[in-house]
Amino acid sequence: MKGLQLSNINKELLDQTQFPSFIIDKRGYLLQWTAACENLLGYATQDFSSGSAIFTEQLFSMAPPHIYETILKSKEAIKLEPLQLLTKTEQLIEAALMASPCQFEEQQGILITCIPMKNIRTFHHDGDMLVHLKNSIMSYFMVVTVDYEGLITQCNDLFLKTSHWTPKRVIGKSFWQLFPKSSTGMQAAEEIWETLQKGNMWKGEVEKITKDGMLYWTDLLAIPIAGNRSFLLIEKDITRDKTIQLQLEKIAYIDTETGFMNVHRLEQLIDEMIQEDRRFSFVYISIDKFYTLKGLSEFNATQTLAADFAKRIKMYFQDSTAARINASDFVVITPLPEWFIQGFLAYLQQNPIYNDNIAVPLSISGSITRFPEDQLSFAQMMKASTRTITNVRKAGGNSIMSLSKEAHKALSRQALIEKRLLLALDQKNLNVLYQPQLDMQTGAIVAAEALVRWMDEEIGVVTPDELIPIAEETGLIHSIGSFVLEQACEQALAWQKQGIPLKVSINVSIREFRDKNMARSILETLERTKCPAHLIQIEITEKFALEAESETAIMKQMRKLEQEGIAFVLDDFGTGYASFRYMQLLPLKTIKIDATFIRAMTQSEKTEHLVRGIIQLAKSMQLTILAEGVETAEQFKILKSSGCDLVQGFYVCKPTTADDVKALYYNKI
Ligand code: C2E
Ligand code: CA
Ligand code: CA
Predict the structure, then answer these.
(1) Residue 571 CB less than 6 A away from ligand 1
(2) What is the model's pTM?
(3) Which ligand sits nearest to residue 576's alpha carbon?
(4) Quick check: CB of 255 below 6 Å from ligand 1?
(5) DSSP H or E segment with residue 348
């Protein structure tokens, strides 16, 4: 190519050059255009109006302005790095350009030779990896280059498609024009620009604007290139995701029917207020019998009822914040005193809601929980509210109440227990004690009941009677259950290995059995610990039995375990429904008479008869009968004379360690 420099060029020579070439004069007007150029770019000579410089007008509208000047002023051949040429059909072609001053038909001109990118690759032996990288980036991302003054110098098709700019128009436009004119838009542009100026990279989600004023979102990566003399913007259109997110947020935060915030937003707000240590009352208001309100069976009617009710809340509580929790429940956050909150009941009576000109007989149940006096978290406020509303409804409804100090304390303790229990389970801070069961005929210990124990550093001793209901409510019972089972299996096996054939009884809550995998996980534990199934007994309560009877899934699981050799014990017999039906239907082996009967037995002859009767009945059904809570020799004697099989209680031994049980086993009473 160097040979062409300053040479005299004629048309023939031009047609023979290897690459599409053309000649312009010193002002940028076209002097000669070749067939090769026409092939590559689509323009014919006549497409260039004679009165204008082609550099700025057509072909080179994509070229940065300073390059245009460089070419025209250049005294010697220069090579321009690949830039984008615009074809007649508005396609962009990447090409490197050689510009060489020359003589053409007695005129000073500049020969421009286009080297399309494909050929350049073979020329420069670009690593394939880099080419692929570039191509992939170009096809997946919008790419824009901006010069040091913030003027757009290049862009790819994807950018044009999204931004609705035409290539002709966008080159030379400013970077700031890509952002919305709003203050946030301008702030974003400024922040990106400043970061780039410092030679740093900027990355983030940003809102942009199309040529025709439509907003769109991109995930933008802006990087300084060429020693900070220009900047590269690589973007992905995320408008779809962003729109969905914004819609979701809107749906999630506002109740469209009433305009109140919803429970998610309320939670955030309460968290903020707690952080700021602001005093307030959390007023929970629930419309009684919302769906069955007379004359409001139609959905539309209930809708307007909610909206009208919300209006009453707004009117009465004025500047206080209100939220809708669900169809019938609302929360008002207010600094107003209790007497004023109570006044809402009277206000509702004076300002009834009408449906077809008839006042709706509205009654509400409300709860007031104060921060910080009563509860300290959103979850706790909701719990306290639910409990209060239940109390209000039990007392007939239509009133707004607060829980007593003690009730709030109990709730807080429960929350603390929940929190600490998670930790205890995690650190295996629970342990298991065993209470022996004695065979009345032989005087031998034949089994032991596994009873969970928890002594927490912070709370102290938590008895199972307190722990188990909380664990059931929170679902932590599953973890406790599997912990106790594992311990029991290991212990039963250990005793067996020591030649002590004791069965171990475990207590299982109905909630654990509602899990369809319960039987399987019990069997897996047996297998893992290598504990024979016949060493394990499961104690169930009457409440459990009642549900199991109607739930075939639970019954199935019990049958499966029974087949594998696990025996079932009906615990606390007599305290629940005492239905003799269970005894027939469920795969039970043992009936455990509740301690209350044993205690009352020595005081009341009737009870004594009852206990004897139960023992006889169980025996007639081939069930083993066990009496629990046996504390005295007198109780022991009566039970023995009644033919009771087994006893358990302080009289024999308190729940104790496995080692103590072992000692007791050898030390027959
Ligand atoms: P339960 O199954 O009826 O267990 C017998 C309870 O009576 C035990 O209380 C035991 O310590 C106590 N007890 C035993 N003999 C006597 C006696 O002679 N006099 C008196 N006054 N009490 C006696 P504990 O260990 O406090 O357990 C209470 C309840 O908690 C248990 O009642 C059981 O329903 C539940 N529980 C204990 N451990 C577990 C467990 O691991 N899982 C499940 N789901 N529940 C458990
Ligand atoms: Ca039990
Ligand atoms: Ca019991």
Answers:
(1) yes
(2) 0.59
(3) 3
(4) no
(5) helix 344-350
